[in-house]
Design goal:
The complex is a heterodimer of chains A (about 260) and B (about 350).
Chain A: E1 3-12, E2 15-25, E3 30-34, H1 41-48, E4 56-61, E5 64-65, H2 71-77, E6 78-81, H3 93-98, H4 113-125, H5 141-154, E7 159-162, H6 171-186, E8 190-195, H7 198-204, E9 207-212, E10 215-220, H8 222-225, H9 228-235, E11 239-243, E12 249-253
Parallel strand pairs in A: 3-8, 3-9, 6-7, 7-8
Antiparallel strand pairs in A: 1-2, 1-4, 4-5, 9-10, 11-12
Helix pairs in contact in A: 4-5, 5-6
Chain B: H1 2-36, H2 44-62, H3 77-111, H4 124-137, H5 142-166, H6 171-196, H7 202-211, H8 219-238, H9 240-246, H10 250-255, H11 260-282, H12 288-300, H13 304-328, H14 336-353
Helix pairs in contact in B: 1-3, 1-13, 3-8, 3-11, 3-12, 3-13, 4-5, 4-6, 4-7, 4-11, 5-6, 5-11, 8-11, 12-13
The chains are: A alpha/beta (about 260), B mainly alpha (about 350).
Chain lengths: ~260, ~350
């Protein structure tokens, strides 16, 4: 599904959080949104998920404006992966994943056999089938994040939006989760995720959108647009970028 | 491999369904046993004969006399009167109230994302108590006490929702804070009514009502409660899968296609309706709505698909058993609200001293 965001603006009271942000994303694309805390990444996502109404501008999915989508129809097309969290009740991992199928069941019924099958399928794709009967609160942070990704897959939407999917994860889990996400984009999912780590953008993103002060500061291939100057203006830290013999980009802070 | 894993999940679901069916069967068995319990001895074969006569009588009514009416000699008229006018309404009401308080507790725990929520979290009970106290003060008779309690309970929750609408901040917190405030107002009103009530006859009656009792259950009360209870339980059962999603954050639930506002208000209204109906006929019976859902969570997990029916049947069974104790343990009847507290409080302590993972 192609996404076109056009001149999107949003304010909280007098504070303008998004100021005329535009970008496109095509099938199978993995777009990383970079930017410091409070720059409007989450607000951008909330607008795309239909949780907040943009002040001006528009969002199109396959050419259709977002306001024409009902809540359930939007959920069938766009899934959301929040940061891993601790819910009130200790649902089994399977039940947590199964919740993703809700948009496809009638308003007054429970998921049936085909939904159970798609939840099983989603868990297998991210490699957490063995956790099925465990409590969501008993598994590790990385496993929880994978469970939330499986839930998004069970939703069978073609676009997945992830809000810092690797925040709160250890180094190994960060990379494992991002590898799975990269595989999904290769399979044709359009993935939009926010991240704080420029190296992750080099490793996994097909395109990068950098936000500064609610405006789009850069948009394009990470190797072209993510420069030492951009990182310094984003995070106010001096870094040195270098390409090693394998062609991967290293980002080293200059302290 | 795929097949094997799918079967594992299917067998777990079958197990939970089986537990729910077993609980339902236990409720039925409990009802039959409860018929024979009481000061006036009725033996099982007499009970069966009386039930047989009654069902023939009903069948005859339905089929316009195609089934002949007969009366067994094993059963005296006095037995029939006790069975069908005294014990039957009380047994049914115990089951209905237990079922509704537990369903409401489970539902409130979900919508308020709070495992310690109980049916009186918004003040439905405090409102009912104020209404009942007012009706008792005005000496309107037991029927009006019931009507006043029911109406006052609904008005209280309407007030809570109204106040929470105009307040600012997190919506769930707003509702709960408004509930605390309005129920505290109701408690003040009840205290004032008790203060001005005649301490010789009116005050004891108010106090007794507040303890909760099913002692003077009449068939009319069963019918009175049946309508709102059915109207409240049915939507809860239909929406029970979606209650699961309300326990997550609003944003998450919305991105999964749930109309959070509509589902939440429906669940709150239905839970309030069944709580008000229960309290208006039984008085204040505490702890059931907190304790039973947690027992059910232990049995079938947190998924409301199984949790809600399991809570309903365990609640019915629990209150039926407690009511049997209440009317048979001592020569004078022990108010059931006291008994449920005696059982509920230790359970609660056990619950909060357990490892966190189990809540």
């Amino acid at each position: 599904m192609t996404i076109n965001v056009r001149e999107l603006s949003f304010s909280y009271g007098p504070r303008r959080v998004l100021d005329g942000v535009s970008f496109d994303a095509a099938d199978g694309e993995m777009l990383c949104v970079l930017g410091p805390n409070g720059v409007g990444k989450s607000t951008l996502f909330n607008c795309m998920l239909g949780l907040s109404r943009p002040e001006s501008g528009d969002i199109f999915f396959d050419g259709r404006p977002i306001r024409e989508f009902g809540a359930r129809e939007l959920a069938r097309n766009i899934a959301f992966v929040p940061q891993s969290h601790a819910p009130t009740f200790n649902y089994s991992v399977f039940d947590m994943v199964l919740m993703g199928t809700t948009a496809r069941v009638g308003g007054v019924s429970s998921p049936g056999e085909s939904e159970v099958a798609s939840a099983e399928d989603a868990m297998e794709r991210v490699g957490i089938s063995h956790l099925r009967a465990r409590g969501y609160m008993q598994i590790s942070g990385g496993e929880r994040q994978l469970a939330l990704i499986a839930r998004a897959l069970a939703q069978q939407a073609s676009v997945i939006i992830m809000d810092e999917p690797t925040a709160n994860l250890d180094y190994g889990n960060q990379l494992r989760v991002l590898m799975r996400v990269k595989e999904l984009s290769r399979e044709g999912f359009t993935i939009i995720q926010s991240t704080h780590n420029p190296e992750h953008a080099f490793l996994f993103a097909s395109r990068v959108l950098a936000l500064i002060g609610g405006r789009s500061a850069a948009l394009g291939d990470p190797r072209e647009v993510v420069t030492e100057e951009l990182i310094e203006s984003l995070y106010n830290v001096k870094v040195k970028l270098s390409t090693d013999e394998n062609g991967s980009v290293r980002c080293q802070p200059l302290l | 491999m795929r097949r094997a894993t799918t079967t594992e999940e299917a067998s777990r679901r079958r197990l939970y369904t089986l537990i729910v069916i077993t609980l339902a069967a236990l409720v039925l068995a409990g009802i039959l046993v409860s018929f024979t319990l009481g000061r006036y001895p009725i033996r099982p074969h007499q009970l069966l004969a009386a039930l047989g006569d009654k069902s023939r009588e009903i069948l005859s009514g339905i089929t316009n006399g195609a089934v002949s009416v007969s009366k067994s000699e094993l059963v005296t008229e006095q037995m029939r009167a006790i069975l069908f006018n005294v014990r039957l309404p009380r047994i049914l009401l115990a089951c209905m109230v237990g079922c509704c308080l537990s369903a409401a507790g489970a539902a409130y725990q979900g919508v308020f994302q709070n495992p310690m929520a109980a049916p009186d979290i918004l003040g439905a009970s405090s409102g009912a108590a104020a209404g009942a106290a007012l009706a008792i003060l005005m000496e309107l008779g037991s029927r009006m006490v019931m009507v006043f309690a029911f109406a006052a309970s609904l008005i209280t929750i309407a007030l809570v929702m109204l106040v929470s609408r105009t307040a600012r901040g997190n919506r769930l917190l707003r509702i709960i804070l408004a509930g605390i405030m309005v129920s505290s107002l109701c408690n003040a009103l009840t205290s004032f009514i008790k203060l001005v009530a005649d301490p010789n006859n009116i005050l004891p009656e108010i106090t007794y009502w507040m303890m909760g009792s099913l002692a003077k259950t009449k068939p009319g009360e069963v019918l009175f409660a049946l309508v709102p209870m059915t109207l409240g339980i049915a939507p809860l059962l239909l929406l029970r899968w979606r209650i699961n999603l309300l326990t997550l954050s609003d944003g998450e639930a919305k991105t999964m296609g749930v109309n959070v506002g509509a589902v939440r208000i429906t669940v709150i209204i239905c839970s309030t309706l069944i709580t008000a109906a229960s309290v208006s006929v039984s008085g204040l019976i505490g702890w059931v709505g907190l304790v039973v859902p947690h027992l059910a969570r232990r049995l079938v997990g947190n998924n409301y698909r199984h949790l809600l029916p399991a809570s309903m049947f365990s609640g019915a069974l629990f209150l039926l058993i407690v009511d049997n104790v209440s009317r048979n343990l001592l020569l004078t009847e022990i108010p059931i609200g006291i008994l449920t507290s005696v059982i509920g409080a230790p359970f609660f302590i056990w619950l909060i001293t357990r490892k966190k993972e189990t809540i």
